[in-house]
Amino acid sequence: MAEISSSGYKDYLAGLFAGVAAVATGHPFDTVKVMLQKHNAEAHMIQYRNGMECTARILQTEGIKGLYRGATSSFIGMAVEGSLFFGIYSQIKLHLQGGVQSGEPRPQVIIPSAACSGAINSFVLGPTELIKCRMQIQGTDSLVPISSRYSSPLDCALKTVKIEGVKGIFRGGYSTLLRESIGNAVFFSVYEYVRYHMHSNIKVDSSNYSNLVDIGIGIVTGGLGGVAFWLTVLPLDVAKTLIQTNPDKNCPRNPFRVLHSIYKRAGVKGCYTGLGPTIGRAIPANAATIVAWELALKMLGIKRG
């Protein structure tokens, strides 16, 4: 079902709530994913057997706060990214429909809307993820020397710029752009089509039950969309993590070259390093994102069929 009404700034405000919900729910899974990608996909590093061992080690050495390492930059980044992404997606979608609301989803509308908004947001998401990833891999474990650790996200950003220049903060930008444009085209295709067909086949008379059904459908569509996103673009995310966390500022920046190196060393499994915690994160984080977005739209008076 399509939007019945839309208001510019409200689309962006609803997206902000969605971004915050995503970080609050999914950041611990993301920390484990980044640790696995850094220390399992890269050659000659200490490896974790699986996500559970990685989680246990973080909890043992740092407690719960270790799983939220780097969350400050994520909350800021995802709040801005969520606001821009959902706002731009809604506005481009409406424009491509000629300002006319359409009931059934159309790929010629959904795919360019999602891909364009994802590409634009990659310029915000890239620097915040670089800071997040560098904060996540340091921890209190012995994998990163104390002299090389950052005291805060701001310290990380300042040191990165000092050592690598302004362009250093955008390291991994090409990988982020590819991941976000391709991944979000897949995400919204799955979300819009599943949502449309679920609403078409579920009829509820009571308004109370209708709200519960909307939340339930949001959980299902967000979760499925998130799984589809990561199954499609996780290799690009693995390459991005290695590019952004490599201490050598002259390291290769081409994600396909990095993936080729990983494939030669560890095969397809290496390119999907961190799949377990990534899928574990995708379902609750994306479900929370979609539910928060749709509830915010409803509270702001933007109705969806």
UniProtKB/TrEMBL annotation:
Keyword Phosphoprotein recorded: no
Q: What is its main location?
A: mitochondrion
What Pfam families has UniProt attached to this entry?
Answer: Mito_carr (PF00153)
Q: Which domain of life is it from?
A: Eukaryota
Question: Which keywords does this chain's UniProt record carry?
Answer: Membrane, Mitochondrion, Mitochondrion inner membrane, Repeat, Transmembrane, Transmembrane helix, Transport
- What is one GO biological process annotated to this record? mitochondrial L-ornithine transmembrane transport
InterPro entries (UniProt xref): MCP_dom_sf, MCP_transmembrane, Mitochondrial_Carrier
Q: Which SUPFAM superfamilies match?
A: Mitochondrial carrier (SSF103506)
- What does the UniProt entry say about where the protein is found? Mitochondrion inner membrane
Give the family from UniProt: Belongs to the mitochondrial carrier (TC 2.A.29) family.
State the name under which the record lists this protein: Mitochondrial arginine transporter BAC1
